[in-house]
Specification:
The protein is mainly beta and 171 residues long. Helices cover 12% and strands 36% of the residues.
């Protein structure tokens, strides 16, 4: 008679099929699905451009974006420390509207274009109070994959309206 608690009792499960092996297999498949498209730059998903541009809303005349620049960094006030128009593929790129006046309730985001095609939207922010002579910055980072070389444009979208842009290159 077989005793289930006896370690000498034979089992019908193959020795290679155990919980650890199954978990490792699932992890390998998941990693391949996530990282192989990025490794070979074959990601076929739509770009992360998902915020509407709705030119139906009137642009608030009290919104003044100031000078738009691209930069390699920002200071503690969010103002550019390294304004320039050329970046390396692995660098973070800050897009800054310096000296801006943004009334409370104003929504702003930046859409990044590569070679004229929409690439990515920065998260939308909404002013919690009136901001005068302030720097409004957004960052685009090469997370997981470097930026492709070429010409880029970053466009500020204010309350659903296309506003000012800045152009730069990744080389």
């Amino acid at each position: 008679m077989n005793n289930l608690n006896d370690p000498r009792t034979p089992t019908t499960t193959p020795s290679w099929l155990n919980t650890r092996t199954i978990l490792i297999g699932i992890l390998v498949v998941a990693a391949a699905v996530i990282f192989l498209p990025r490794l070979f730059n074959t990601n076929t998903t739509d770009p992360t451009v998902n915020q509407p541009i709705d030119n139906q809303q009137p642009l608030d005349p009290n919104v003044n974006l100031g000078q738009i620049v691209s930069s390699g960094g920002v200071d503690r006030d969010g103002c550019p420390t390294d304004a320039r128009t050329a970046f390396e593929p692995n660098e973070s790129i800050y897009v800054v509207a310096q000296g801006s006046d943004i009334p409370q309730g104003t929504s702003v985001f930046v859409r990044l274009y590569h070679e004229g095609q929409p690439l990515e939207d920065a998260p939308e922010i909404t002013a919690d109070r009136d901001y005068d002579n302030s720097c409004v910055n957004f960052v685009f980072e090469p997370t997981g994959i470097a930026f492709d070389t070429g010409q880029y444009e970053a466009e500020f979208i204010v309350n659903g309206n296309q506003a000012d842009t800045v152009s730069f290159d990744v080389r």
